[in-house]
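Can you give me the bound-state structure? Components:
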Amino acid sequence: MNDQSPWSVLAIAPLLGYLLVIAALPLVFARFWDHNRNKLIVALAAAVPVAIYLLARSPDGADRLIETAREYAAFMALLGALFAITAGVYLRGDLPGTPAVNTALLAVGTVLASVIGTTGASALLIRPVLRANAHRRYRRHVVVFFIFLVSNGGGLLTPLGDPPLFLGFLRGVPFTWTLHLVAPWAMVSTALLAVFAVVDRAISRRDPPPPPRIREPLRIEGAWNLVWLIGIVATVVAIGSYGRGWSAAPLVQIGAMVGFAALSIATTPRRIHEANRFSWAPILEVAAVFLGIFVTMVPALAFLHDRGASLGITRPWELFWLSGALSSVLDNAPTYLTFASLATGVVNASGGQLSVHDLGALAAHPTGRELLAAVSCGSVFMGAMTYIGNGPNFMVKAIAEQHHVRMPSFFGYTLWSLGILAPVLAAVALVVFR
Amino acid sequence: MNEILVCLEGSPSTERAAGVAIELARTLPATLVGLAIVDEPDIVAGSPTSIGGASFRKDRNAALLDDAHRRARGWLDDFVARGRAAGVAVRALEITGSAAEMILAEVPRHDLTVLGRDVNFRFETQDHDRHTRDRILRRAGKPIILVPEQLAAAGPAVMIAYDGSPAATRALQSFAACGLARRGDVHVATVDDDGANAFETATRGCELLAQLGIRAVPENVVSSEPTAAALLSRRARIGAGLIVLGGYIPSALSRLVWGSVTHEVVERATVPVFLHY
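Here's the bound-state model for the whole set.
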């Protein structure tokens, strides 16, 4: 713990306040929150005072803000590029919505989530899953498990999988480090798929038989977008492996992301974008909201780096559950960085010399590695606990409702996750994070 | 009677209610007004939204609103066609707004309102919606007929459940004013542990009806069954095709603590129930 630290616990207030505001506004002022311009106003209202404070009162405030701006640009470039490229791929055709096919689709989505991101995998697969189950009376459980597996847990294995992990990558966690989390990923995925198979089989018995019809064979349209996707992965891996410390690396990375996104947009026929209902609005929304998050995070992370150990949260299982609990009700990306910074503070309290700007060092530290694994798993898995824990959750819910699936209410969904996901995570936590 | 309001939302009990309303309009006679509500406030209600989700919520809201308008137009077209085929004057009304508020605003403009018992005005977002129906019943101030999905075979007779309360008296008077007594024999039933008391109360109800020019038969019901079950048993014995009740459906908590005869009768009746509170 750094007793000379200028930061008090109040440093967390802007981030916490902002996260609470963006959680409450869609509920209280839904129409206001519908406009991206208003989101930007709210983000600036939160960010500007913090930025002014940092510039005026913190000796390294300007450096911190420049570093944050770089991170923000890289983060948005990746999200935007993945969003654009996956919107260029469309899975056409019909599959029968049997328990076996549904389980297989969820399994494929779980793996795919780590390759093209939870948002991309969700956007790619949710419509085929809904089409396959269109004839069924009871479908909501399929969507709920889809959110558990494809929109969240599946993305644990690479930094491309889920935004929190990419934030970690931007702060130095090696690209392949998350592959070490394969054991909890496999345990949670297998357990959820097994539960789903049993539940879906039981529920399918109450469904009417599917109407006889000619099925359109399954085929991928816009498959060349996979080339641009490989370009993204290659760029991220190359920068992560060889470009650390190279001053132009962030610019090269951002340029590559923008370039691949532009190539995807230019080479994708309009009909595919229309079939995917592609628009830039969601990514502009993310850009506006995350602007506020990135800036308000600066003092919070500095405080946790300096004084994190004083909070008494020092063990992996504590970080797993706390990062998870907060990821459930706030977005999991800032929660991940907050708790990763806390983990840095914990390691530093026992003699470490780690920086919150270099989570790679945390990932390499014997104790830090366990703490970071707990934070990664907590943030990614428990982003599925509510509709607001992770970006794709609400997207999947909204698309399902457009297809006349009556999704559970916010609290109804939380009961599903408390009843199914939480026990699975508790079992995994007992094994992995003791 | 001039106009009967029929609230349409596509459920099987509403289909049945439309049939009952057409039959009533033909015999009374009266003009039918079909009302379909697009509950926009429910569809676009704010909800916790993840980052990036607001755009998808806008798309979802627009899609559900389009669907609700399309369905409302379909129900109204079907209803108008059915009414015209039956030779009844009929017109259609589509309103966008909170279902309970919009219906409560329309109810006073018509002589009688007919609702399916299992109506779900939040059909775009929910599987069931008893809340809207019960709110309408509590605040309507005008007679409402609730029609179950499954109707038992019954004659034209009417059974008025009368306990001497102001609510029961209002229902009785309202029933008389509607002209529905012309359908068949009218029975006034009172449930009490003491048969003499029951007969006395039922007779008082008959006298009230007599003052309004309607002849009725008193029915004293003494039964070991709960009041609602006793009334429904008597209805079956009489073969009445309509039950008249003065009361409202209280909240779920209140029902849990105090119980509700009205709720029990409404939920278990196999014939239309005329309610006025």
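A couple of observations. The mean pLDDT of chain A is 90. Chain A is about 70% helix and 0% strand.
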